[in-house]
Specification:
The complex is a heterodimer of chains A (322) and B (284).
Chain A: H1 17-59, H2 62-65, E1 69-70, E2 75-76, H3 79-110, H4 113-128, H5 131-158, H6 173-197, H7 201-209, H8 214-225, H9 227-243, H10 246-251, H11 269-276, H12 283-321
Antiparallel strand pairs in A: 1-2
Helix pairs in contact in A: 1-12, 3-6, 3-9, 4-6, 5-6, 6-9, 7-8, 9-12, 11-12
Chain B: H1 2-5, H2 9-45, H3 50-54, H4 68-99, H5 102-116, H6 120-132, H7 140-164, H8 168-176, H9 181-209, H10 236-244, H11 249-283
Helix pairs in contact in B: 2-11, 4-7, 4-9, 4-10, 5-7, 6-7, 7-9, 8-9, 9-11, 10-11
The chains are: A mainly alpha (322), B mainly alpha (284).
Chain lengths: 322, 284
């Protein structure tokens, strides 16, 4: 990729000493910026570990499965927040993967250009909407609608399940999960659409030639060919849902309790940091909150890393197939 | 023989149903933007008036006032963040594109990937521990630093791709002139890559403009005019958050008004990024 990579080095005019020094300095400046960036990322990790050290040494691994969160007695456990984060993100990804993949299939395989282009544009802009605006809408529009219509419906029909029993507050796990779903649909759709478009046409032609309809071709040939990458896209979107802070904070109800009901208020890792960080008075309290941040950091590395790995392996396989 | 492969009714119906279901889902996803925008415009329009845009917030319980200090605060914080992110982001992207081979460069790319997937609140914690805690003082600068870190991965990736995408012929042209590397890159390669770099920059600015979480414990918010980056500062998205979760109707109204301004700013930046992109691809 260097300038002289394409041409034979011998063809190059000899550079003067001044030019050579300038080249060196240029490279040095670029390297310095890169090292600064590396230092920032490593510093971020080191600071989170350093800041949460007091909590790590005090509570040990029990921090992850203790459900006590009591600033008065200085006893801290993350389980209620892990539960709220996992359940709300699970709802989000369950809904967003179905809607997002279906939308991507339509945009990539069926929609004529004059429909696909504006729809894609709208869906991509949806990804740009600030999360505080999603939160505002979720709090004043989505939550009242859900508590007036959808929640009572679930309670009437599926109320015998613990998941759908109990009081309806409007804010809670289900509302947060659905709002997060809306926020991550664009991620699923945009990546899945590109992956489907990248499936070689020969596969489609072979399937059509065998007598399959367009729909059968899509579902049995095209989508399976992109399957690994699509799962990767969903995992990536899951990562976004896990870390989303402001919108979740506004609609999840902020109560550190584990309840079987999806209507019950809950709490996520990021929203407890958002709500309590500036109120943390003791150093162990602050440290416990920083450890929640460290947990988020580690989870997001694992989730995003595996998502990238899946999409990367898919791209490589397609590259080989050609 | 042809009759054998002709579709029976069931298969045809299933195919049609599938098509309708997928079309519905994409209409749903795209329609959501329309619904969201519609609510924000309808609810926010009533809150927009000269006072809202030019006045300071009033104390709790007093009707009226505005978010002028928040708008100015957003501009200052995002502005400082952009100024810091431009050199580091573009130069790192340049390094990866020009010299970035081998394991070390792959590691840098991996770190950029990691950072881009990181929850913004974790980045806010980082800014807090290194820029707020040591000084026992919230500051707009610490918020700007958090925003810089948020902008970097996107800027690095788009800059690297933009420079890698410059046609070989143009790079060979620079070589044929006998230029040293730095002149060829700065004067010939970089100008060609500029529209794409600008696109990445605008997207990064749009991303942090809508960001709220790291501000909670960096910029912290303020009721007053504040233009010194060393002090706590109001910020529009933070004001929207505070007003939305408050119990006051007048503040709810103002939250919608603020949301309208914020969403317009973010959408303009995104459309601008797209225009820069299409101009860039026409040039090639």
């Amino acid at each position: 990729m260097r300038l002289d990579e394409a041409a034979a080095p011998a063809a190059r005019r000899t550079l003067s000493v001044r030019e050579r020094i300038a080249d060196r300095m240029f490279r040095f400046v670029l390297l310095a910026a890169t090292l600064l960036f590396v230092a920032i990322v490593l510093g971020l990790f080191a600071e989170l570990v350093h800041g949460s050290w007091e909590s790590i040494t005090t509570f040990g691994l029990a921090f992850v499965w203790s459900s006590q969160w009591n600033p008065v007695t200085n006893k801290f456990g993350a389980l209620p927040f892990i539960y709220g984060t996992v359940v709300s993100s699970a709802i989000a990804i369950a809904v967003a993967s179905v809607v997002g993949i279906a939308a991507a299939i339509f945009l990539a395989e069926f929609a004529p250009r004059f429909i696909a282009r504006p729809l894609s544009f709208f869906i991509e802009l949806l990804a740009a909407v600030p999360s505080v605006v999603f939160g505002l809408w979720g709090l004043f529009v989505l939550a009242p609608i859900l508590s007036a219509t959808v929640d009572p419906f679930f309670q009437r029909t599926l109320g015998f399940l613990p998941l759908f029993s109990g009081n309806i507050y409007g804010v809670g796990l289900l509302t947060a999960g659905l709002l997060l779903a809306l926020m991550i649909v664009p991620t699923v759709t945009a990546i899945t659409r590109d992956l489907i478009l990248a499936v070689p046409n020969e596969l489609r032609e072979a399937s059509i030639a065998l007598g399959a309809t367009r729909w059968e071709t899509t579902m049995r040939v095209v989508v399976p060919a992109a399957r690994v990458g699509i799962i990767g896209a969903c995992v990536l979107a899951l990562g976004r849902a896990l870390g989303e802070t402001i919108a979740a904070t506004m609609v999840i109800g902020n109560r550190p309790a584990i309840s079987a009901s999806l209507f019950a208020p809950s709490y996520t890792l990021s929203s407890v940091i958002a709500n309590e960080f500036t109120e943390a008075t003791s150093s162990i309290y602050l440290s416990a909150l920083l450890e929640l941040g460290l947990l988020l950091f580690i989870v997001s590395i694992i989730v995003n890393g595996s998502a990238r790995l899946m999409m990367w392996s898919m791209v490589r396989r397609q590259g080989r197939a050609r | 023989m042809i009759a054998d492969v002709r579709l029976d009714k069931g298969r045809r119906a299933r195919s049609a149903l599938g098509l309708i279901a997928t079309a519905f889902c994409s209409a749903l996803a795209a329609g959501l933007l329309v619904v969201l925008l519609g609510y924000v415009i309808i609810q926010g329009w009533g809150a927009l008036n000269p006072a809202f845009l030019t006045q300071l917030p009033r104390p709790v319980g007093v009707t009226g006032g505005g978010v002028a200090n928040g708008i100015v605060g957003s501009l200052i914080i995002v502005g400082i963040a952009t100024l810091m992110a431009i050199p580091v982001g573009i130069l790192t992207g340049l390094y990866l594109a020009v010299y970035g081979r081998g394991l070390a460069a792959e590691l840098v790319r991996f770190l950029a990937e990691v950072l881009s997937g990181l929850p913004s609140i974790a980045i806010g914690l980082f800014a807090y521990t290194i820029l707020v805690q040591p000084f026992s003082h919230f500051s707009a600068f610490s918020a700007a630093f958090a925003f810089t870190v948020l902008m970097l991965p996107l800027m690095i990736r788009t800059s690297e791709e933009a420079i890698r995408g410059v046609p070989t012929a143009i790079r060979e042209g620079a070589l044929a002139l006998g230029l040293p590397d730095y002149e060829g890159i700065l004067h010939i390669v970089l100008p060609v890559a500029r529209p794409l770099i600008v696109t990445g920059l605008l997207l990064a600015v749009a991303r942090v403009t809508g960001e709220t979480a790291p501000l909670l414990f960096t910029a912290f918010g303020s009721q007053f005019w504040e233009i010194n980056p060393g002090n706590p500062m109001a910020e529009l998205s933070l004001q929207i958050f505070t007003y939305a979760i408050s119990p006051y109707d007048d503040w709810h109204r103002q939250a919608w008004g603020g949301a309208l301004i914020l969403i317009l700013a973010v959408l303009v930046l995104n459309v601008g990024a797209r225009l820069a992109l299409s101009r860039g691809s026409r040039k090639r």
